[in-house]
Amino acid sequence: MSRTRLEEFSDAVFAVAMTLLALNLAVAGPGHGPLLHQVADHWPSFVAYLISFFTIGLIWVNHHALIGNVAVDRTLALLNLVLLLFVVLIPVDSSSSSR
Question: Which spans are transmembrane here (predicted)?
């Protein structure tokens, strides 16, 4: 497997994980008060979004630094999949199990 192919696949997975973070953000919408008040009512969700976004971003930056300095082989590709498995778990909403 080429380094470019591994990086492009990984970048796509990181992008999906970061996009999934935004799905947990919601406000009631028009007719339920000013937007700023609605956002303030859900501040824990927005703080969790920021922390998770920057966590995934830091992993992504370090991933690029690492992949740029190693030879890509089958073992690295499999280890990369394990890393990506945990990256994609970051956006999982733990409160969804109590719904």
Answer: 44-63, 75-92
